[in-house]
Every structure is written in C-alpha cells, then in structure tokens.
Design a protein that fits this description.
Radius of gyration: 26 Å
Largest sheet: 5 strands, parallel
Number of strands: 8
Bound molecules: adenosine-5'-diphosphate, magnesium ion
Shape: globular
Helix content: 55-70%
Strand content: 5-15%
Distance between the termini: 58 Å
Oligomer: single chain
Amino acid sequence: MQNFLDKQWAQALGDLEQTISAIGFDMWIKTMRPINIEDDNLVFVCGNEMAMNVVLRSFSKQILEAIKTHFKLDKFKVILESEKDEYIEKHHLVEKSEKNKEELPKAVTNEEELTNPLNPKYTFDNFVVGTTNSLIYAATRSVAENPGKRFNPLFIYGGVGLGKTHLLHAIGNYIWDTKRGKVKIVYSTSENFTNEFLEILKNNKEKSTIEFRKKYRHADVLLIDDVQFFADKKKVQEEFFNTFNDLFAANKQIIIASDRPPKEIFGIEERLSSRFSQGLVQDIQKPDFETRVMIIKKKIELNGYKFDENIIPTLAERFEKFNIREIEGALNKLYVIANLSGKYEVDAEILNEAFAHSHEFEAKVGRVATQEKIIEAICIKFNLKRDELFGKRRTKEIAEARQYCIYLMWRKLDIPLTSIAKLFNRDHATAIHARDKVMELIKTDPTIKKLVEELEDLVVH
Ligand code: ADP
Ligand code: MG
C-alpha cells in the first residue's frame, strides 16, 4: 500500500510543482506524505501545524485536482506528524514494522513528543547564495546533510542582519525534514541558556536542574545563536562547556553563531573558545552588488510585491551599505510608499521622488538615524527633557542617559567622537569612556543589550 501511495504521490507532485509557486511547493507541499486511504479520503501526514494550515487554506484546490488525476479520489484529509503513530496503530497499517527498521537517533525514542522548534520561514531554499556567502552556504548545507559527521562544531560569524540566524534555522529545518521529525533539535541563544541556568541556580531545585540538562544534553542537534553574549559568568560557561563536551563526544552536531570569531569573544574562557574553533570556523560577509540584486529579486517574489524590473540595479547600488535585514526593510517601505501614492508598483518615478527627498527617503527606507532622533529616543526612554540631557546637572540617571546618547551617536551617525563630545561640552576622553562603558555593558549584561537594541530601533523609525 505505502509503495503504491508513494508512487502515485510522486506523480501528483509533478503536477503540483506546475500549479503551485516554487516557494509554496518547497515549503509546504513537500512536507506532506500520503499514508492511507480511508473512506475515500486520501490521508496525508503533514510535518507541522503551520504547514497543515497553509496547505488547507491555500492549496486545497490544486491538491484535489492532482489526487483526482493520480488517485481517482476527490477528498483528502490531513493529520499531523505527532498524530501519525496513533493513527497507524489504529488503522493497522504496516508502516509500524517498516518504521522499526529505520535507524532512529536513540536519545529521543521515548522522550516527550517532539516538535520542530524552528521558524519554517528560514530555509535553504529561500536563502540567496552569492559570492559573499557561498562558502558559508556550502558549509551549512554539508552539516545539514551529514549532521555530526563533518565540521563539528560549525562556527558561523559575521555582522548583524547577514543571515546567521536564517542559516541556523535552515540547518535545523533541513535535518528535521530529512529525519522526518525524529530528531531532537534544540535552538537557543546564549542569552536564553544563561537565563535558564541562572534561574535554576537561584531556585536550587534538583528537578529543574535535571530537566535543564535533559533538554540540552539529549539534543541530537544543538543550535546556539548569538554566542557572543555568553556573559562573564564562570558557572554558566562551565555548564555550557560540559554540555558541549557531552554532545561532542556522542557525535551530536553543534552549530554556533556569533557576531565575531571565537578568539574575539569577550570574557569567555580560553578552553571554551578553543573548543569552538576545533571544527570549522566560517565567516559570512556583506552582500556584494550581484548578491544584492538577487536578494532584492527574491524578496520581491517572496512578498508578492510589484517592482519595475528596470530599477533593480539602481536599488542594489543604493543599498550598498545595507545588510540584508535593512534591504528587506527598505523594500517594504518603498512598496508602502507606492501603495500610498495609489500606484501599487514601485517604478522609476516613485524612486526618483523618494530620492529627491533624499534625507526623508533615507530616513524612511534606509533605517538611517539622525541626531535629532537619537536625542528624542534617549529623552523618551530616560524620561528627561532635552535641557537636562545637555545641561550641567549630573545625577546618576542623567549621566547614564548621556553615555547611551554618546554611544548611539558614535555608532549610528557618521560623525567623529570629538564632535559628539563637543555637543555635550565634554572632552574627548570622557566621550571615549562613555562609549567604551556602554560597549562593555552590552557584552556582559543582557538587559542592557536589550535596552540598546530598543533604542537602536527607536532611532531609525
Ligand atoms: P543575523 O542573524 O545574521 O543578524 P538574520 O539571519 O536574522 O541575520 O537575517 C536577517 C534577515 O535577512 C532575515 O529576514 C533573513 O531571512 C534575511 N536574509 C539574510 N541573508 C539572506 C540571504 N542570503 N537570502 C535571503 N534572505 C536573507
Ligand atoms: Mg541573528
């Protein structure tokens, strides 16, 4: 039976590939597999709830057509991967014995129900590969295809918005799909790991320690994002070191992302950073012109936007300094501008208009901060008046607000620190000190990191 179903489905897939967009097909249809015919219904298993909803909402018509042709059926139903075993048992399907023969990772056989913790949006299929990221793409792909066998650990580093998180999820999604949901994948950030662990130390409950360890040390694939925030806390690093060693010894795949290479991560122990380097360390760079063109095209397609093809090179040039997240933001905003003007398509005219008010345009599309916006954001966040921020008074609060203001101006505006110091009537050394202090705090204190991220967001809106 299963052979028959698979054979017919392979043919139906051929039809569906023609009738459904490439993205829709790869992301959703491929997660389905027929396992039974029940009361004239073709019964599918679907990878996750999200996929099931999308399939039922958006692709029912095309699926019905395809199964009519290839199965002579005109109904179907979908069950979730998590319901599959129960279904198979209830309907006495043979798959059970087939399944036992499959090689499954041991750690997870009888554990809690597995779910895919990853964002289905981030896949290899919608990751644009150009010269600046082809090496990292090849490395992540190879790890996804051979988890635990090559490049362990894989350490990815590069600036913000360049696709590190996207790739971590893509690896996880790929493994999840190919192992048909029978692996335990843990995705976490160093910040989460730290918080969870500190919580346990605080409560000092044996049960939660066991659960914590079970969660991380029973992983088949461990993805740790933003590892630069492993705070300067010995106990947390010790715990992670042990987790790492356990998994590594058991040939479990570990993938780590960071904004800088292992050696430059502030405050982590030497033995941890050398562990990070023992597999493959690979960087990811800002997209070059060609890659930006491809990314722009892909994002337009994925979002269903309308852009005049002819302006794409101009956009790619204009976005020279942008990371990919900023490119996405700029495209969204241009499309909004076009819609507001009643045009529904971004063309040369819309673009010229936007460029003509360059400053405004940049502020709109480029997530570009201005001095005014930084001052405003600081005043709002710290509940200060402008005069207080620039005045003589030196309460602890005001001094702190000034430090953040100096840091943000240094980071976001193209002006030298000496000019920033002048603005505050301070000397250069004071400004340097303020900037360095905030940089240090960002590295060591997750709440400060959050605060600065919020501020950074505020100043570009
Ligand atoms: P990082 O973790 O490096 O800060 P993200 O992975 O969050 O960056 O990427 C930021 C955004 O840019 C995401 O929406 C992601 O999907 C997109 N992105 C990054 N690189 C690519 C790429 N090569 N192709 C398509 N989208 C990309
Ligand atoms: Mg990220």
